[in-house]
Amino acid sequence: MTRVYLGLGSNLGNKRKNLEDALSFIKERIGTVVSLSSFYETAPWGFESQNSFLNAAIGVDTFLSPVELLHATQEIERLLGRRHKSVRKVYHDRPIDIDILLFGNKVLHTEELTIPHPEMAGRRFVMEPLAEIAPDVMHPVYGKTIRELLSSVEN
Fold first, then answer.
1. Looking at 29, 61, 88, 94, which residue is catalytic?
2. Where would you tag: which of 25, 37, 50, 117 has the fewest CB atoms within 10 A of its CB?
3. Catalytic annotation on 3?
4. 114-115 vs 53-62, strand pairing mode
């Protein structure tokens, strides 16, 4: 079993319900949710939108492999109405976004998946909820705790 950390976000529809529905599917399909951050309202990042986001981070114990986890999160996104993934950093409004932030202390880089999430350390909307539930977890690439990384995030 591996402890993984996921980032959740929603900026369309009933955002709170979208996050709660994602949590239910995660419990059913991925593993045991061991920690859940507060929900944070944040401005869109990387694109213009009239819709703010609701973001959270969760810790989950899972038996899935990294690729199995990716496919499970993508299926949950589809079930909750997400039709398009971001391509080449072109972002869109979405009912749900589930990102794999950390997978234990694994470092993985394939065409399909990069772990840890390559942009997490520069995104306050990711790091703040993650630091709430996992402040002392060590980032396996940067060799710093989540709390330390959060202290250097500008936006």
1. 94
2. 50
3. no
4. unpaired
* Contacts for 91 with CB less than 8 Å, ≥ 6 apart: 44, 45, 46, 47
Stated pTM of the model: 0.91
CA–centroid distance for 137 within its chain? 15
Whole-number Å distance between alpha carbons of 33 and 120: 20
- Catalytic pick among 99, 123, 136, 147: 99
At 16-70, the pLDDT tens digits run 999 999 999 999 999 999 999 999 998 876 667 678 889 999 999 999 999 999 9
Query: How many residues make up the chain in this entry?
Result: 155
Active site (annotated) includes residue 94: yes
Which of 82, 83, 123, 124 is catalytic? The answer is: 82
Per-residue pLDDT tens over the stretch 94-131: 789 999 999 999 999 999 999 999 999 989 999 999 99
**Which domains does the chain possess?**
2-150 (3.30.70.560)
* Choice among 3, 21, 97, 123 that is catalytic: 97
Q: What angle (nearest 5°) sits at the alpha carbon of residue 135, between those of residues 113 and 31?
A: 50
